[in-house]
Amino acid sequence: MNPALDDLLHRLGLGPGVLVRVEATEGSVPREAGTWMAVWPGALTGTIGGGQLEFQAVREARAWLEGGEPIGGVRRYPLGPSLGQCCGGVVFLQFRRIDAADAPALRDELGAHLKPLALFGGGHVGAALARLLATLPFAVRWIDSREGVFPPALPVQVETEHSEPVQSAVAHLAPGSRVLIMSFSHAEDLDIVIACLQRLRLHGDLPYVGLIGSKTKWATFRHRLEARGFSQEEMARITCPIGVPGIGGKEPAVIAVAVAAQLLQSIDSD
Fold first, then answer.
1. Distance between alpha carbon 36 and the CA centroid of its chain, in Å?
2. Long-range contacts made by residues 185-193, C-beta under 8 angstroms, separation at least 24?
3. Are residues 106 and 154 in the same domain?
4. Tens of pLDDT along 30-48?
5. Which of 14, 22, 28, 217 could bridge to 87 as Cys pair (CB 3.0-4.6 Å)?
6. Bridge partners of 24?
């Protein structure tokens, strides 16, 4: 999930709300289909893009919460002069009243679009990435071979796992998982890379495998992987160094931003 979904699930326990979801769009619009917000009597969770569209949707949802007429079907909102937005497209919104009984279904429904991602390594960079990825469209499986390395409180979107040996977790990743490798040792990193390459050889279902480290580290790894029989084409499936170029700094938060940006680029290329 993400912080917005965490907040929605929390507020459901306090009282009913209205889920407003973008069902479809035409032309230029602020947000894509599937975007949602939850409207409460005195608060909002999430956003469908702001502006007059969101203002009007909130007003209509709160009128329903206050005893007004139920909002059925899907409503059409042209983003032109009538709403004072210059996008020029059309947004179709669905309104749905929700309460605590809907929490399990909403957990699955609103989290279904998240991309699976395996993060190997519970160090400082791993922790910074886990916090950042929890705000992005990823379902994070955070894996380490050491006990007690994960913080006690994490977003529901982040699931921790102890795996010894750590590379054994690769075989059980969800198909389509993106993988980030940044364990506490080069030996573990190499074992995880080998497991990923073996899975790619069998199934080809890991769209992104990133290894933290320098060009020198990757050159060393390449020699060891060649000795194990992996081809140049297979090794080209590994991204090392990771992160979009041009972002300087080695602070964990800076690295996390650069890597998260690269992961988002990989989603856009799907």
1. 15
2. 186/217, 188/120, 188/145, 189/120, 189/213, 189/221, 190/221, 190/224, 191/165, 191/166, 191/167, 192/120, 192/166, 192/167, 193/221, 193/225, 193/238
3. no
4. 888 888 999 999 999 989 9
5. 28
6. 92
Distance between CA 210 and CA 120 in Å, rounded? 10
State the pTM of this model.
0.73
Sole residue written with tokens 């709160």: 62
Task: From 222, 130, 120, 267, select the one nearest 179 (Cα to Cα).
Answer: 120
**Range of the structural domain that residue 12 is part of:** 3-110
Question: Residue 71, Cα to own-chain centre: how many angstroms?
Answer: 31
Q: Domain count of the chain?
A: 2
- Angle formed by the axes of helices 252-268 and 124-133, nearest 10°: 50
Confidence of residue 81 (pLDDT cuts 50, 70, 90): low
Q: Do 51 and 155 belong together in one domain?
A: no
Q: Among the three residues 78, 110, 142, which one is the final residue of a domain in this structure?
A: 110
